[in-house]
Prior knowledge:
Blueprint: H1 4-34, E1 38-40, E2 46-49, E3 59-61, H2 67-77, H3 127-140, H4 148-156, H5 167-191, E4 196-203, E5 209-218, E6 224-234, H6 242-253, E7 262-264, H7 271-276, E8 282-284, H8 286-300, H9 302-315, H10 331-338, H11 341-344, H12 351-375, H13 386-401, H14 407-419, H15 421-429, H16 442-454, H17 491-499, H18 509-516, H19 521-530, H20 546-551, H21 560-569, H22 573-584
Parallel strand pairs: 4-7, 7-8
Antiparallel strand pairs: 1-2, 2-3, 4-5, 5-6
Helix pairs in contact: 5-21, 5-22, 8-12, 8-14, 12-13, 13-14, 13-15, 15-16
Amino acid sequence: MMDPSDKRGARDDDDGAATAASKKRKTMPNTSFIWDHFQRSEDKKSIACIHCVPLGTTIFAYSGGTSTMTRHLRRKHGIFAPGKSEQDYERPPSSSSTTLSFFDKASDERVSDDKVPKPRHIKSHHSRHTLQWIQYVTTRYASLALDADLAALLHKGGGAFQPLQGAPLRTALLELAQAQRAALQTYLDAASPALSLSVHEWTSSFGVDAVVVTGHWITEDFEQRQCVLDTYVVMPSDKDGAVVAALRRVLAQYKVDVVGAITVEPQWHTPALAEAFPDTPLISCLVRQIDDVMLAALGVSMPLVLKARQLVVAQHDDHAVVVELDQPQHWWSTLEMLQQPSLATHPSWTSDEQQQLHALVALLTPAYTLLKQMASSSSAAAPPLASLVFGLLHGILLLLLKNAHAKPFLALLQPILHRSNAPLALVCVLDPRFKTLPFLGAAEKQQAIDAVVAQVPPKPSVPSSTQAPPPPPTSSWSELYPFDDPHAPGGGDMQMYMDSTTPNDLVEPLAWWKVHRHVYPDLAGLARKYLAMSPIATPIDELLQVQHHARKKDIPPALVPAYVFVRSASRVPELVAATDAAAAKPATSPHGRYV
Length: 595
């Protein structure tokens, strides 16, 4: 006979097993549901939401629970756990919030419209999803319409994602662009940053050209910003005068009198542009000029490239080897193709061809490395590019001098540096990493330093009188060290700056100036102006992105300005915060009621 205590123990074990099984049954659906929307890290300690772009924006520590992740999916993406709906999570009327945030939405079935204050840009309960969809498509230059396949995929994740479509969606995009333009205008009026401009253009598949003017600036906290100011759609026959007209319209629209520099495509760096803006330094896009040189190098080696393409096409029958065919208009894609091990070591190459192939790869690789460095600097926290590109181009030139096969192309590379020497040398002076200008001659170096010193305002001199006025607040260390000539125009601060130790491989220039802006206040102001200059006209985030070049050509011309502006403004924290704040403020009718 079983002891009663054994029976109780058996019952306890059974109850424990039943409880564990019950818990397992309760957590299993949500657990499997989570992995449709989150990606686990290699160490399995954290998971990232695949809907938050770019991937890695939203990361949670993972220990087995799912409540935090399901709440994130519900609140931010409108995705509910299996068997759940929005009604299951609504608050009782007594605890309902009195305000509605920009991304909240009211249920038309449970809450009457007269009890819910509607933000200015909230048109329907689809608005949160509509904004998310707009951000998604503009970031990728994708089609604004939600195609059937993607809609089916989204419904598989819960079926709650329902952005507006058709004409209402286009209206929402245009209204969002208008709101962000107003926020940009307000920000520029209040902050008055030292702007530099860049202009680039691309041809649409609809037979028109889009001319895009972008503003670049450094904030007072020494953070880098860039945003499209406006986009103009013109006919190809009107493109010659479109750049000057676009620049003038932007300057008038945003009430900008002076810009630090204007970066344009090489074919636009003309006497007409210089005459239109006589006091503004002009910079030819360095990426376009490098592209021309690299394409010329490929043109000389075209028989080799054609054979490589034939080998790639022949390898397509071998499913174990996957080599992508290059895009002829993008030289770096040809380099990526030539660097594939299965192609570089193919037995079809003769010894002479293999030697030529290695020489061609050695010629293209330094410039490709520079492009990758630039493409990785597309975030707002990235260091300024102008000084980096200008300095590294000199390094590439020095490397190619040692390459016998590169000598025919040095005559094409050297003029690039000479044409950009004047403004970019000044940028390097104000970048602690390159301030010694080791790649320039003594005369050019001194000329650049003198040009910076000439822009530093002189120190105020004390008038000779019996009663000296009280000294102004100390603004730099040179005033506490009166052994230098205080009347030298910035010479004291400049000398101290040049003599300061800055390990160039460890310094992030904007962070350095943020710390030292009170030490060299006048030079810090110049640094904000010059470090904002862009060495390229092409958007940084579109470098090495072939799919972007193809997709944006298919955007309807009427939507191009809104697409480009919203895509750019969503990367500027000040504009995102201002737009959200404006949207969260309830709009009122003339009678004082919510509308």
